[in-house]
Design goal:
Helix 12 crosses helix 13. The strands form 6 sheets. A 5-stranded mixed β-sheet has the order 6-5-4-1-7. It is built from 17 helices and 17 strands. The protein is α+β, with helices and mostly antiparallel strands and 465 residues long.
Length: 465
Amino acid sequence: MFQTSVYVERRAALAQRLKSGLLLFFGNEESPMNYADNAYSFRQDSTFLYYFGIAHPGLVAMIDIDENQEMIFGNEMGIDDIVWMGRQETIQEKANLAGISKVLPSAELSDHIRKAVSLKRTIHYLPPYRAENKIKLADLLSLNVNQLKPSASLPFIQAVAAQRSIKSAVEITEIEQAVNHSIDMHLLAMQKTRPGLKEEEIAALIHGEALRTGGNIAYPIILTVHGEILHNHFHGNVMQDGQLVLNDSGMETAMGYCGDLTRTFPVGKKFDNRQREVYAIVQAALQSAEAESKPHTKYIDVHYAACKSLAEGMKAMGLMKGDMDEAVAAGAHALFFQCGTGHMMGLDVHDMEDLGEEYVGYDDTLKKEKELFGLKSLRLGRALEPGYVFTIEPGIYMIPELIDLWKADRKFESFINYAEVEKFKDFSGIRLENNYAMTTEGLRLLGKPLAIEISEVEEIRNNAY
């Protein structure tokens, strides 16, 4: 946990913004894999961590703004728990570290809610994403589960999103620790990969590296020779010389802060000519996006800078044709780049996605575009403010099924040279991703150096085996 004052100040700022009502914070429960006592690794709700810092299952917190009270509801360990788990730090001890003196049994939560309802007080809650919290909240508020999301408090969502978006110095230090450990994971993958190994062998090594640091992986590892699949969690392929490995993986610290990096490298010692050409295009798009990323610049413009750079590279290779400004405006480049250029990052790898991308990545001046292919998955569009932490991750993905579909529909024929694109259906994909903080002076790359130049990557691969 951070110092007690961090959590006290965060809650005070939140209460000042919302001014009145009860604020409910549902922590997460243990989540069983196949029966109740065999649970997945526990992960606390990120907003609960942000305001209370306690990574303990089964807790609910309440801030009563009108009564100036803060309390946590949860059950202390009984003798059965102690027999199985040993004596742990009590909830009260943990609450004290968060600056909360009042801890009540879980059963008393319903009494507080019933009283508030009877007095017609405003009860603010965030949209729940776990089934057990949906059931609990629906029962407490006498709502149908399907009513919970539309009835969630918009002022509460907006206040939390605004506060969590601006990372403090202590948060950025913790995020950078996660990024540095993520860099160690990526370097290990580059050093240990060799032809004949299964993807799962390298995935196991880098997962172990995350655990070794006292944290865990921030999201399921993407390590694949089929980089054209954007989120490929299958690790059963045998890696062969001539293929590329796309490694998208990151570490999460014990406090819950994330790193999220991607590198693409050859299974063998060198990139072939075609791979080098496409890699250089993706790297140029990353650099274009970095150059566009300035304080108060809209991230959607950063996205378009990456798209334009990618399209120009595709045109130079003969895969696209015509005016690339027109091509990008129409969405023709999305045959090769189907997703957004990046996203916010912090306590979640896609920070606060549970609150709704339309509140986190967008604002009243910029609505999320859901229709144009390639823009609907852009999680961040709003202006980049000092304190934002985010990714930039352009890529080129040659998806045979998408190529066949667009070609059959004769889609964007004035911009796409399908005869040349056909030759790349066996290519797979390349993605490069770094993590950044926006400062008042400009963009800051987070973490220690990690090989990205072709020469740097090949040097590591030449010494790998």
